[in-house]
Amino acid sequence: MRSSRHRVHFIINDHYIRFVESDKRHSFLSYRQKCLPPGVIEEGRIKDIEVFGMILDEIVEEGKLKGSKITMCVPDPFMIVRTVSVPLEIMEDELKGYLYMQLGETIHLPFDDPIIEPVFLGGKGGQNEVLLIATKESVIREYTDVFEASSLKPVVADLSILSLYRFYYHIGQADKKEHLLMVQLGMDTLQLSVFHDHYPSIVRHSKLSLVQDELELKRGRSGQEFYILNVEQNRLDGQARDINTEIERFMNFYRFNLTKGSNQITKLILFGDHPYMDEYAGTISDSFELQVQALTQPLFQIKKGINIPHVFNDCIGLALK
């Protein structure tokens, strides 16, 4: 019989469904991933609900997860994080209502059905600063409906950047004084975010070029599915240059636009599931004069003593919430 603390923690992107199963705090029971066929999810939106539901049903049956409470991360393309200023007279318990009132006036978001969560940061320059976190309600509803149809019980939605920073904090690496650039490198995505004082200040999501024919599905000895990339070296070299260019632009924007030259990135950490993570970490380290740390080694185990691969770091971060 499962304990009251039993949870299953899902991360879903355009190519994978992943989860780790946890019991009491920091105790992991299992992990699993399945590859999604092309076109089932595109840029975070479920395009083929029937196939997605069938795959999820299969995961629930194989893992004996029926009735489990679950946590999940909001799809990255529908995540907004920014710092906004509000008048001093607005109390903390009034922040959410005030921010909703400002939609379309002083606050503009790229979708018309946002869910907003404010985080009070403190006073600055005669106003209060608030971290605005927003996502698209209809997208969250799509996922929760499919989870519920597969006999799962969604209880928490989080952001991948917060889950990964929680992971980083838990392993004792986080320093509130640093200006940390978190690089999330996916099969065809690049997400960049900055943390300072343990809070994110900006996040940028972009696409990397990928031809579906370059993906080949494989199965490991444990039965886990994964994709490999069949590409020429010059294609990888070109993508590495593109990634470095985006990182440099983002670092310059943070230094000169967002902080007006008062701060700059002091450390870079690399997460993700790109098959060439280690190679790209090397090119990034060679290109920038700052500390680069690639978290590509397993740091957690399930109870059987089996290492949990690094591609599950965001799932683990969800479990640490």
TrEMBL record:
Instruction: Spell out the InterPro entries in the cross-references.
Output: FtsA/MreB, PilM
Segments spanning the bilayer are none
Protein name listed in UniProt: Type IV pilus assembly protein PilM
Question: Which superkingdom is the protein from?
Answer: Bacteria
